[in-house]
Structure formats: C-alpha cells, structure tokens
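New to this. Explain the following:
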Amino acid sequence: MPDLWLVVLCILLAGVVFVLLRPKRHHLPVYIGDQEDISKIMGSIEMKRAPWEVFDGLAKKYGPICSFHVGRQPVVVLSSSQLAGDLLEKRGDIYSSRPRLIMANDILGGGLRGVTSPYGDYWRRWRKLQHAGMSARATLAYREHQTLESTVLLRDLLRHPNGYRDIIQRFSASIVISISYGRRASSLEDTVVKANVASIEVLLTPSAPGKFLVDADVQKTYGRRINKECMASRTLEALAEANASTQTAGSIEYALVAIMCYPSVARKVRAELDEVIGRSRLPTFEDEPVLPYLQNFLREL
C-alpha cells in the first residue's frame, strides 16, 4: 500500500510540474504546434543556414504573424512589413522592448549594454548618448569617409567580383573604424577589424534564442568574474553594440540580391543615373534630391 501511495504522489507531482512548466499560449498569435516546424526553425538559427527561408515557409503555412516557444520564452514572427511597422513603430511603446537576456545582458554586460537592455530609464539614457553621435545631423560629418570608402568599394568589386563578401565587409568595417579611430582599414586582416569581428561574435552568440537554458545556474557559479573579463574590452564592445559594420554589410548584400531578383528595377535605377548624373562621375550625397527613383529603391530595402 505505501508503494501505491508513492506512485500516486509521483504522478500528481509530475502533473503539477507539467502544468507549471507548460508554455503559456494565451494572448499569442497563431501558434506553431508542429514539432517538425520548430526543429527547422531552431536548426536554421543554430547552423546559420538561411533562417529567412524557413520563416518564409512558415509565413506561407501559418500567415504573416505566428508564434512559438523557445523553452518558456515566447517568440513572435512577423513576415509582413506592414505588420512590423504597425507593431514596432506605431505601437513601439508596447512592442519595441527586448526580452530579458540573462546571459547576454545581465552576466556578460553587467546590465550595462543598452542594445540588450529592456525599455526603461537606463535604455532611454543610453539611447540619448548614442543619438548624440548617430543622429541625422551628426552623420553629416561622416559623409567624407563614406564617399571615399564607396569609391574603393566599387573599384574592389570590379577587380575581384568573386570576393564580394569580404570586400563589402571590409568597406563597412573601414567606415566604422575611420569614424571611431580616425584611420582606414585596408583589409579584413586589420587588427582592429579582426578584434571587432571577434567581439561581435562573442557578444551576439549569447543573445541567440535558447542558447542558454539555465542562465541562473551560470550566474551562481561564476558570479561577476565573467562580467569583469567583458569590461576589459569595453572599447570594442561600443563598436559591437552599434553593430554598424554588420548591418551595413548586410544591407549592401540585400541590395545586390534585390537587383538580381528584379532586373527591371535595376535598369530603371541605371537609366535615372545615366540621365541625371551621366557616366563621367559617381553620384554624391548632393544628388539625392534629383534621384527620386533611386531614393525610393533604397527605402524599399
């Protein structure tokens, strides 16, 4: 009889644990319950194999907005630019915050990394400081660097078209370094470029969804020691937090894909450039007002 009661008690406890740990699906959009789809999502993110293709397939199957859980963390996937604008821009006060990233923000960053901090007083102060150097008015001072590096970018692409990825990454990294350190980067082997790339990898890896399932245990085991190691590279972290290098390179690659997918649009852009600018010089920032089609093309990206 005692054994029977023990079995019943274990079953009851298992039921309670299941209910408490079961992901909450309340107030979420269309929920992805197919474990095969979940495996595809996590596999593409972990292996870095075109996750956008997986999400595009989910949009066709579930619609422009769907959700799933990584552990107990809900994830909402938006596959519509209109939805993204409505939720993240028009209702930004509600939806533009970030989830609590214990490893990436609390432990590695000591709660001081604005890019992973949730919306609040600290984030607003951090954003204000960033705005001082990254506002539209402030970026006017960077145009000389951008013009020079753009010319070098085009030259390198003409000479070595098969190495476009490294060329684009060098271009974007050199702009960041020239603005931050006052010198250019001639190649990806530049010591500052390599340190910046390594820093970004270190700081972005812990931010991947589901990367650390038991963050609390890591904090108890290592305490502030992990954070002290990160503080030693605070200067490099500033570049990684801005994420300007990675974002710029990704935008250019995305533009190349768009041009290849929509050649008719590319021909219209070229026609406008030939008509307004001609072929004797490159366009400059001062030409923006007279290149409306090009500007709209860039906004679509």
Notes: The chain has three domains: 2-96, 100-253, 262-301. The first strand starts at residue 30 and ends at 31. The radius of gyration is 24 Å.
